[in-house]
Queue: 2 jobs
Job 1
Amino acid sequence: MRWLMRSVVAGCAEIERDAAIMPQAPAESFPLIAAIDLGSNSFHMVLAKADNHEIRVLERIGDKVQLAAGLDDERQLSEEAMQRGLDCLRRFAQFTNSLPEGAVRIVGTNALREARNRAVFIRRAEEILGHQVEVISGREEARLIYLGVSHSIADTPGKRLVADIGGGSTEFIIGQRFEPLLRESLQMGCVSFTQRYFKDGKITPARYAQAYTAARLELMGIEQGLRRLGWEDAVGASGTIKAIGLATKAAGLGNGEVTVEGLAWLKRKLFKLGEVEKIDLDGIKPDRRGIFPAGLAILEAIFDACDIQRMSHSEGALREGVLYDLLGRHQHEDVRERTLAAFMERYHVDTDQAARVEAKALSALDKVASDWGLTDVWHRELLSWGAKVHEVGLDIAHYQYHKHGAYLIEHSDLAGFSRQDQQMLALLVRGHRRNIPKDKFADFGEEGIKLMRLCVLLRFAILFHHIRGTQDMPQVQFKVGDDSLEIVFPEGWLAANPLTQADFEAEAEWLKRIDLTLSVR
């Protein structure tokens, strides 16, 4: 596998580096845990102590970075926007640098999802924070928002609609108690809409109507689904919704909740002021004034599309959800395991075979982990996941089912998994049989070496159990080098099992293509 040691060529500069890192998920709890939300409008950090399945917040820090405002027409983040974000992260780093690996989870949202050069920012952010950065999908963001909200408000039995207006996207969730039933994410946010409709700070009825109409058009694709499922209460989970509620409360229009009457009053007030600079209302902080008209237009569109009369506010949102999700991983309540179980059921995976392959793959990992540098928690997690789902593509077609499976894994919404997780898992599934796409492994740089070795172990376990069943299989020994793998079977066993012998002889030819020498005796 010497080819993997070469530097990634310049033509690979656009490859997503954010796909090259797998987050840690240790089994033990930590005295302190932290969540950092790299939002399109604001960056936030929450430092907390976990105590008896609950979280006690010790510190909250936030800053209006407006990362999304730095995206140009080519979806490139400007150096100025990146510097604003990095300056903020240097302050966060004073709290996180002393925390061990696995105690901090950092998630990037819509601005980083959109940015073509996000790898540059992520690399610099990781150098400052000392922890890995994940970019999460819109629906995963929605799941985490709901988790944060559901732990922050009364545990009522009915369904609730949660809306979170961010800087670049708006998330919608209908859930009951702690379980989301529907998750959606739309490409509209208070920063992106400000850039589009209120960039010069002028507020006119015509511009407001354009922003409102754009939001209604975005909502058309999901509003029927929301209405069909229904809800009893509507909850807002963002700074925009909180600011609107506080502004109307200061005007004597309610107790902090958002109402139709309050929205109408605020809209008239903004039209009368005419400029962002003149917004000086109680409840609206100076650093929110510039994006306030866009946020108001989006929220009015949500009220009209969903026929909402009243919306309360939750202090809990994405970062609190990240903390509770992290806590669940520590306490063996990992949503990723439930997600994969449902995924396997959906695509009719042979769970007995998956369990056999998983056990053998992890057993092999234990024997070679030290020599092959596969000692991190995520190595074991990824190999386990790959063994469980390597056959999902069979539900599509037998021909090239490894490619079908890789596509399903990479492009499905898998709760609990970041984009990085899914891309790496998809690559293992893609490479578990026949030709190994060495160029795709090379895209991961030095991490590709470890991914390749995990793939080889997965392939071994699959071949070992190629003849399905519960028949007794022999114990084998492994001898590994940087570019070699020797598997030693009990004397005479291979001669008595010629199909297995033929399988491994064919495998040796496949592995030659990646400069790995496989010998079996």
Job 2
Amino acid sequence: MKLTLNFIFLLFTHQVICQITEVESIRKTSDLDSILISANRISIPFSEDSRSISIITNKQIERLDPTDINDLLQVVAGVDVRQRGAQGVQADVSIRGGTFEQTLVLINGIRMSDPQTGHHMMNLPLSVEDIERIEIIKGPAARMYGQNAFSGAINIVTKVQSDFGATFKAGFGENNLGLVYLNLSAPIGKYKQSISGSYRSSEGYRFNTDFIIRNLFYQSQIDVKDGEIRFLAGYVDRDFGANGFYGNETFINQYETVQTWVANVSAKKQYGNLIIMPKISYRSNNDNWQFLREDPELFQNFHESGVLTTEVQSTLLHSLGALGIGVEHNYLTLESTNLKDQSGNGDHLRNQFGAHIENRFVLADGKLDVTPGILALYITDREELNFFPGLDVGYSLGEKFKIFANAGWTTRIPTFTDLYYQDAGNSGNPDLLPERAFTYEVGLKYKYENRHVQLSYFDRKATDQIDWFRQTEDDKWMPDNFSVATYKGFDASYQRAFASNYFIDFISISYTYLNANFEENDFAFSRNQLENLRHQLVIQPQFSVKNFKFSVLFKYNDRVSLDDYYTFNTNFSYQYKRQKFFLRASNLTGQIYKETNLVEMPGRWVSGGVEMKLGSL
């Protein structure tokens, strides 16, 4: 398929450039104060941002030592991780009651969205050991990221190693779990580079839940005068039994293999008050789903998607703040044996063009920040131009308190699965309209030394929201737009780091309440409506005594469509010189629960192993 792309992107990141001093220890001052939010079009200090943002820091990751990224995202209330199975095999992630299609996931600002289906957005080619931090933006984000950032965005920031060295990790556990991870870093002068690979497998916790996951991830960075150039490439291969993953619980013999490739080249160059950041990235995904594992030829689907993105970001500093203007192009393709239009064609093409302007004003001696902006979005197969304005406002009440408010319009374009999927129980709808929503939020932030508190109230009104419906149990599921859905709720979070003479190192407590209401429709059954978490509480204390570290993750989830439940995850480690021995247990009390209405999650799962820093090569 012929590609002709000469479209570039000029975009500003709403910030006044700040020099950020690295903090040596979370015990001396909070890591959050020093973090520069870098999710694509945001690049301001965490403490100065006027949005509801949660950060999972590198120190939290080290102490939690989670099995996979899905486990890591569950430490933040308001983020709903709905897993099918365990150990990162497959999961859908949403924010503040949105569907998994309405959340955007990025790696260093690279979109992981797939035109086939949002089920693939967590096919990430990296391990938790490769992550520096995770930035979670709750609320409307289309102004900054375009479509799919309907209810929020998650940006995963990776590590770039500066020294020669190697890390080796090996573990085993129940259900014949085995894992191996290796990272090598080998800088050459100013050229920093590292490569990592991992392998994880299990025979599964019940029939046809075995899996194999292979990751390979490379990244590099070279510093140039007044700038830098980065390269990233990753590959993940997942093979897994999909017992009850799709359709209904009686489909126990399904099987799926998924391979995802990601590559990105980006640069950053400063010319006085002007900063320019060009970027080009490509993501490809191959998916083979089999209805009957023992007889693949009976019924199976093949899908191959590709997304090529070109953009350039730029920031121009001025006396009142910073101004940016930009454009962006996404070229999306899909070849499918199942997702066929009315003419029987399974090859699909979509171009997305965006133009963006935004200005961050810093006024009243730095106490007031106001950031208006707008995104213009044109999508070829929709043949319409839409505008998505937004506004952030923040005001500092002294050094400790800040009040903030933001509002904006967002959109989500139907995937090709929404439009064209066909099988014995489902039928796509090519006449679907894009989803739209208006969201506003008001909140308060408090920070004092190593304490951070955030409170916020949010209200989202969605129109033309997409769900799958049917009139009777014998009908096929079919997606359609329904008129209005409203989501109202509030978030509360508290974080504190303690001094070195305390037994406890760190504690995080977060809670989200959500009330979702849907306008009545003529359908008897719906697949996704009223499946949000109504109450979500997450408590995460971390302790240490000399070389011993211990962490607990308590979660309470009250989902409106399923039984409420709570789980305890624990992690224990002992550091001896360059070796760390770890023991972890997920669902320690063996709760029986579901995160979707089809798949029962595993009971207690214990694993352990060793991690070795091999030092300079």
